[in-house]
Every structure is written in C-alpha cells, then in structure tokens.
Design brief:
The chain is of the alpha+beta class. The chain has 9 helices and 4 strands; from the N terminus they run H-H-H-H-H-H-H-H-E-E-H-E-E. The protein folds into 2 domains: 100 residues, Alpha-Beta Plaits, CATH 3.30.70.1350; 204 residues, Alpha-lytic protease prodomain-like.
C-alpha cells in the first residue's frame, strides 16, 4: 500500500474514489422528467402545425397581391416548417436517457438542430435578397394591397404568439432547439412587420420600389439573427462552461456543505441541453476514513442537485498534501 508524504495510507483514498466517482453506466444520470419530456415533444410537434398554417396564410397573401415582400415572407415560412421538423427530431433524440453507447446522454442533439436553424435562417435571408433584387430590376404593381395586409397581419399575430411560447418554454426546459425555433419565428415576425410597413408605404405613396427595398433591409436583420444562433449553438457543442452565475452557485453550494473537508479545487463545468456536468477535486484530511469522505461527497452532491436541476456530479477525493494554494474553495 502506498504512503502519502505525511505517512498516511492513500489506499483508502483510492478505494473511496473508486466508490464515489459517478459511473453513468452503474448509476444512470438524471434526464428530463417524463411530464416535461412529453410536454417538450408536444410543443415541438405543435410548432410544425403552426408553421404549416402560417405558410398557407402567407402564400395566399402573396397570390392576392403579387408582392415580392410577401413572397419572401412565405419562403421563410418554408424554412420554418423544415426547422420545426428538425427541432422535433432533435428533441426526441435529446430527451432519451443515457445508454451503454451514450453514457452521458443525447442532449447535444438539440444543438445540432439549433445550428441547422441558424444556417437555414441565413439561407432564407439570401433568398429574400435575391427576390428583392429581382423586384428592383423589374418593378411590379401590387394587387389588393389592403386585403394582403389583413391576411399577412393574421399570420404575423399567430407567429408572434407562438414565438413567445417557444422562447419562454425553451428557456424553462433548457432546450436550445426549442428556444432556437422560437428565435427563428421571432425573426419571421420581424420580417412580416417589415413587409407590412413596406406594403403600407408602397400603397400610400405609389412607390412600388419600397416593397423590395424594405424586404432587403429585413433580410439583413434575419441574417444577423441566424448568425448569432449558429455561433451560440456551436459554442455549446464545444463544451462551453456553465454561466458565471451558475458557477458561483456551484461554488457556494460546495462551500456551504463541505464541512469536514479542507478544500475543493479544479472545479470544471460544461452544459449539454438541460444537463449541467460538474467535476472537481475534494481535499480531505489524510487520516479520514472512506466512509466519512463518502458522506461529505454525498452531502455536497445532494446540495448541488437541489440548487441546480438536471446535474451530473463527479467528485475526485484527494489527501491533504494535494491541496492547491490558489483558485480553490476553502472549506
């Protein structure tokens, strides 16, 4: 049996570490509760129905008016349908519990869907630019603009209400795919408002050129939203750490519940969908028994799980000579 520098055996610490370290195959990680998972998938499924409804309304408005801005608006709604389907698939995959082949769960599937949504938003912006340029080169008169405004307004109201639902529920369920779908719909609402303004101005002033110009301006904003969504999701795919606020709460929970230990250091976090992974080293007195160290670890892990929903905690127990002078949480 190896000895530490102060003469205490570390065999007990090794045994304690083996008993304590969280093995996802032996103790399955917590996933979303069944009611939340069902609600998650229901909302994602409803998004497809809403997207199809809005697409039909917008295309009808285009047929009534011949407005390039309304056509561009309808084209973006096609993207909404595709991304809603992608979000539903990703959410169904991401909500599955860990298995032997994926011991840390399937949460990152949602980030792939969010990246796809960002990319498709950018594509939609490009298509709108193309239609706007075509309309600038070959101006066209608008038919039944008032009726088109009413129809487009109905579609915009539906999208605005559903976007608010998706963003709010996506944040509550820590679902990047659902929140991303909501932000995508929000960009569609912005597009529709720009289209309505363009149609009103074009009708009042008789300047039909305003229709494609405003469509192009709206496309720039859509491009910005798509880029931000894609970059944010890619950061999460690269194991981005939890937010500073979450990390501060983790440190405080360790400090408040680590009585008997000496310090915690090398605290690392990463997030994947609703799951927060926490790992750190816990330094205890060299003579402490495995049972006592295990009890401290249990107490800290329980506190972290109360503080943060959907956590996976791994604690590495070390003897006191492993203590670090800087960056540690003193207990």
């Amino acid at each position: 049996m190896w000895k530490t520098k102060d003469g205490n055996a570390i065999g007990r610490m090794a045994l304690g570490l083996a008993l304590r370290c969280h093995n996802p195959l032996m103790a399955p990680m917590k996933s979303l509760a069944e009611p939340d998972r069902s609600r998650h998938q229901f909302i994602a499924g409803a998004s497809i129905a809403v997207a199809l409804l809005v697409l039909g309304i917008k295309y009808f408005a285009f047929l009534m008016t011949g407005s390039v801005a309304l056509l561009s608006d309808a084209m973006e709604s096609i993207v909404n349908v595709v991304t809603a389907i992608a979000a539903l698939i990703a959410i169904r995959i991401g909500s599955q519990p860990p298995d032997h082949g994926h011991p840390f769960g399937h949460h990152k599937a949602e980030y792939f869907a969010a990246v796809l949504e960002g990319a498709l938003i950018i594509v939609a912006a490009g298509l709108i630019f193309k239609e706007a340029i075509d309309a600038l080169l070959t101006p066209r008169a608008l038919d039944q603009p008032v009726a088109g405004l009413i129809v487009s307004g109905v579609a915009t109201a539906i999208n605005a209400a559903w976007a608010a639902v998706l963003i709010r529920r996506g944040r509550a369920l820590s679902s990047p795919a659902m929140e991303g779908d909501g932000k995508h719909l929000l960009s569609d609402v912005i597009t529709s408002v720009g289209v309505i303004v363009g149609l009103i101005l074009a009708t009042v002033t008789g300047w039909s050129v305003l229709d494609p110009l405003i469509a192009a301006v709206v496309a720039v904003n859509i491009l910005r939203i798509g880029y931000g969504l894609a970059v944010s999701s890619l950061s999460q795919l690269m194991d981005q750490a939890a937010s500073p606020d979450i990390e501060a709460r983790i440190r405080e929970a360790i400090r408040a519940n680590g009585e008997g230990a000496l310090q915690a250091h090398d605290i690392r976090t990463r997030t994947a969908g609703p799951q927060t992974f926490i790992e750190f080293h816990l330094v205890v007195p060299g003579g402490m028994t495995v049972q006592m160290a295990h009890a401290i670890c249990d107490r800290i892990e329980d506190a972290l799980e109360r503080e943060l929903a959907n956590t996976d905690v791994v604690i590495h127990v070390e003897p006191e000579y492993k203590a670090k002078p800087k960056g540690a949480v003193e207990l």
